[in-house]
Amino acid sequence: MLSMKNISKVFKTDLVETHALRDFNLEVKEGEFVAVTGPSGSGKTTFLNIAGLLEGFTHGDYFLDGVNISNLSDNKSATIRNEKIGFIFQGFNLIPDLNLAENVEVPLRYRGFNSAERKRRVQHALEQVGLAARMKHLPSQLSGGQQQRVAIARALAGEPRFLLADEPTGNLDSMMARQVMELLEEINRAGTTIIMVTHDAELARRAQRNIQIVDGQVCDFTMYQHGAVADKPHLVAGDKRAVEPSSVEAEEATS
Amino acid sequence: MFFYYLDLAWRSIKKTPLLSLLMVLAISIGIGITITTLNVYQLMSENPAGDRSDKLHGVQLWSQGKDAWKEFNGQVTYQDAYNLRKSDVPVRQTAMFVTGLALQTEDPDFSPLLESVRVTDSDFFEMFSVPFLYGKAWDKGVDTEAMYQVVINEDLNKQLFSGENSIGKTLYLDRKPYQIVGVTKAWSPSPLYYDVTTGAFKDSAKLFVPFSLAPIEEYQSWGNNQSWKREPINNYSQRLSSEMHWIQYWVEVQDDKQRDEYAEWLTRYVEQQQLIGRFESPEAAAKVSNVEQWLKINEVVPEDNKILVGLSVLFLLVCLVNMLGLLLAKFLKRAPEVGVRRAIGASRAQIFSQHMVEVGLIGFGGGLLGLLWAWGSLSMLSAHFDLEAALTQLDLTMWIVAPSIAIFAALIAGVYPAWRICSTNPSAHLKSQ
């Protein structure tokens, strides 16, 4: 589904070069729920932006659903984002002037669906997140948890194969966070591949697989959370031994 | 997507009403001034002959002596007009000038009016497409066998006869009775191309009388009279036989071939006049010009007017630069929203289009408001500077031209801000929201 080989991303200014990602390797299979953790500044968001085709990369190969992402035109990237990828952000990123239905409708507009199809999908997506009755409300009239559910509905409306979530529960209290997480799990069970960046170890533990990014490199894999567990992780680039999330959390706490 | 973008544009304008109003004002002032000058320029330079422009030709003769003016004169002498009328090449032709006559009716209580009267031939009316309300022009025979007949216009007919059919009624011009044979509908080409000698922007005459009456009634010329030769003109007969230029002469030809044929006829006429020693200058020649050429030759649109249009366009550019700054501020403020739209599937081109539609809508608003400014400016010019009404009315085409220019100008101003906003890195704003 997603394959990154030796991806590197360098931000250059006149004075300094910053390596946000270096020799980054990752394979994500269809239907997986992957949690990405790592300390602040480690490159999690850069990885997510590259995975979501929001940013280019300096070196390496990236294949998404069999498509080579290197040197894609802006139009092609936008089409892939629109058709295959759904985004969920920490800050919800709903458009404040549009009501819920209009917010959910935005990606469908860019996709060129007719009015009836848009209406059907908006209705269905909002029903999935339990907010169909409030489709005429503005985002400011909702709680944070409800706003995030609308954002999820917007991501789902286009029926993407791939959901990228950047700290989706970061701005929510624990109860709301749990609800959103349950929703994501439900979506994943329905077949959508999810990559979720999070700081929350508990949430990460609920994913099928954990990836830790440190200094722009994949540090450790946990192959199927509920399966075999290896010993303490070594934060070495390319190390592919499995590790328990609690260890990741411990490492994170010390970093 | 256009209507979706239009909806987004309208929401955006409503969201920032003051900023939007400033932009609309900026462009409307530029458009208002541009349209004002353009309107005057267009009305001045309009070719009112339309598709007959290539058929109607003004005639000029280089009949002056060696030491006289070194260019063709816009008018001809009575002698030449008399001779030119003998040509059977043109389809129609007319000699003409303007005079002034005291107008009276059969009503003893009617106070006499001094009116300008066009002295012309019967062909005048068909040549210049004069529409008739009642009756028609006098018969062609009257052009050679003078009769006291008159054609009046609709306004005068309303004034004198309450708009009723006045054909057959009598008018008195300088105390002579004239029978009304035709009443023209409201008609006043602008510019008054067939006689630009005393200003091209005036109303057409209210009365028309046969040219053949001129030697009998000794009508005085109210137009330009230009002499190059010192010669005694103590009576009307001397005026008619003088070398004074005071008659306008126009012909109508079917096509270019007939025009060339007529030009040849004129060349032979000039040679003939040289032979009899009348046209003394070796440069003696004849020239025919269609309406378009005639308007240029007579500089109906002054050079100053073109400069004024240029300056107003420069002012519009200054307004656009202001608008560009405001647009840039407005659009860049929207970068986080654009980031979201980009993330969920909008291409750069779609974001660019969305913003250009908004700019176009602002431009359209500016165009409409600019029209109001232009209308106000023209009314003010009309009221304070006593300009001809023909120059200060807002031309109908401006209702399309103004919004079109405004939208086009706004789109030009909007290209850079729209390009900037669609080029911003979406990921840079997704975290910051």
Folded structure, characterized:
The complex is a heterodimer of chains A (255) and B (433). Chain A is α/β, with parallel strands linked by helices and 255 residues long. Chain A has eight helices and ten strands. Chain A has a single domain, classed as P-loop containing nucleotide triphosphate hydrolases (Rossmann fold, 3-Layer(aba) Sandwich), CATH 3.40.50. Chain A is globular and about 50 Å long. Mean pLDDT of chain A is 81; it is low at 223-255. Chain B is an alpha+beta fold and 433 residues long. Chain B folds into two domains: 2-47 and 302-430, no CATH class; 63-284, no CATH class. Chain B contains 15 helices and ten strands. Chain B has helices at residues 2-15, 17-45, 78-84, 123-127, 154-161, 214-217, 236-240, 256-275, 291-297, 303-333, 335-343, 348-385, 389-392, 398-423, 427-430; strands spanning 56-61, 92-104, 113-120, 132-135, 149-153, 170-173, 176-184, 207-210, 248-252, 286-290. Chain B has a six-stranded mixed β-barrel. Chain B starts with a helix and ends with a helix. The chains are: A alpha/beta (255), B alpha+beta (433). At the A-B interface, helix 2 and helix 3 of A face helix 1, helix 11 and helix 12 of B. Chain B: One of its GO terms (molecular function) is transmembrane transporter activity. Chain B: Residues 20-268 form the MacB-like periplasmic core domain. Chain B: Keywords: Cell membrane, Membrane, Transmembrane, Transmembrane helix. Chain B: It is a multi-pass membrane protein. Chain B: The chain crosses the membrane at residues 21-44, 307-332, 356-376, 396-419.
